[in-house]
Write a structure and sequence with these properties.
The chain is an alpha/beta fold. Helices cover 62% and strands 6% of the residues.
């Protein structure tokens, strides 16, 4: 039967329904008095697909809402979408890191799907298929994935971004051994991706806020405001408690789409730190010959470590050279990163081929594949050269202040 929770915030169990529903279903009362049947699914579970089929057959909905935005819907509908991607444009627009995070999350979900023999998002596409077959109106109920990732990434500081990348790589590539049957059965009962995000949320609260809580509100609003008889909504099981808690509340969608505002202290540091470095170098050159030594340390620390990052990524020799030359300067310009330069150079010199686009989904599932595929290689060069430049900035600053501070 559906949830037996006590009515709260406009939530009503299926007291007025005599039909037998799967345990994954929670019934809500919408603004127009009609019922909304929310199916909490695991995105890589065969049982979730069965639940979707059963509920649609039982309630014959006028509207089907799925936890997809237009971008994710297009991605699931068109497996060849990568063929039209211009990776150099992605890097120029500063969206390289968002693409990288998206690929890592997709890789994790795809790995879980392979373990369970189910294609990620299959239950969503089954709902889409059934809606079309029955002539029901299809509603895409989720916030745009680029907005979600942008708000999530933009809300993290440098070190948290670094820790997040490590966690994502570990989740995507860290465990290669097969799960035992008990683990598989446990995962089939829950939202696997949500479990991973919840684990990360304990370390990064803003991730849980942006990726889960905000989307709870968005999905709730999509279902609550949806006009139609017997609405069926298909969402990840992890979103159902939040939808229940905030059911019927008014939300400001514009606010949930705003770019996170930078902390004032961080903004001052981001612009003030380069200015202090420039003034320190200028003062050193003016007051003492040791200023040239400070300049040398700054350039070598930034250039060598950024170039080392590009080398570890097996970047093109000219990409490695670009990292060495660009990093000392980009470290002094908050709006441009070394990775933007090296990623663009790598994309131009090793322009991805059609084959790279066709195998991107498969290649992103293993570390070896990331090095083999030209698209993911660009992202690796961009990321590791940026990391090297960041470390070089802190080490270079220490060297500069040490020399300038010791100048008579």
């Amino acid at each position: 039967m559906s949830s037996s929770a006590e009515p709260t915030g406009g939530f009503t169990p299926n007291s007025d329904q005599a039909i037998e529903l799967p345990s994954s279903v929670t019934v809500f009362k919408k603004e127009d008095g009609e019922s909304a049947y929310v199916i909490g699914t695991a995105h890589v579970s065969a049982k979730s697909i069965e639940d979707v089929e059963k509920v649609v057959d039982l309630v014959n909905p006028e509207v089907v809402v799925v936890e997809l935005c237009q971008s994710r819907y297009d991605a699931l509908s068109d497996p060849n979408r990568w063929k039209s991607m211009d990776v150099s444009k992605v890097v120029r627009q500063g969206k390289g890191m968002l693409l990288l995070v998206n690929l890592l999350l997709s890789s994790f979900q795809r790995k879980m799907g392979e373990e369970m023999g189910v294609k990620p998002g299959a239950e969503m596409m089954k709902a889409v298929e059934l809606a079309k077959e029955r002539g029901a109106r299809l509603e895409l109920g989720d916030r745009d994935v680029q907005v979600t990732l942008g708000r999530t990434w933009g809300g993290l500081g440098f070190w948290h971004k670094l820790k997040l990348m490590g966690s994502l790589f570990d989740s995507a590539f860290g465990v290669e051994e097969k799960m035992n049957e008990e683990e598989l059965e446990r995962l089939k009962e829950g939202d696997v991706l949500n479990e991973m995000l919840e684990d990360m949320g304990r370390t990064f609260p803003s991730i849980r806020e942006r990726l889960i809580f905000e989307r709870d509100l968005w999905l709730m609003d999509s279902v609550y405001r949806c006009s139609g008889k017997n609405v069926v909504a298909v969402v990840g099981a992890g979103h159902v408690p939040g939808m229940k808690e905030h059911w019927g509340e008014e939300i400001d969608r514009n606010q949930l789409c705003e770019k996170p505002k930078s902390n004032l202290g961080w903004t001052i540091f981001k612009w003030g730190f380069p200015l202090v470095i420039i003034l320190s170098l200028a003062w050193g050159l003016y007051s003492n010959e040791s200023g040239w030594e400070a300049v040398k340390i700054w350039f070598m620390a930034n250039g060598v470590l950024s170039a080392a990052g590009a080398l570890v990524a097996l970047g093109h020799p000219l990409s490695i050279l670009a990292a060495f030359v660009a990093a000392p300067f980009t470290s002094l310009v908050p709006t441009v990163g070394a990775g933007m330069v090296t990623g663009l150079v790598e994309a131009i010199l090793r322009k991805p081929k059609v084959q790279d686009c066709e195998t991107l989904a498969e290649d992103s599932g293993s570390l070896k594949g990331w090095y083999r595929n030209r698209i993911t290689r660009v992202l690796l060069v961009m990321t590791l050269s940026s990391l090297g430049s960041a470390l070089g900035t802190y080490l270079g600053a220490y060297g500069v202040f040490n020399i300038i501070g010791g100048t008579p």
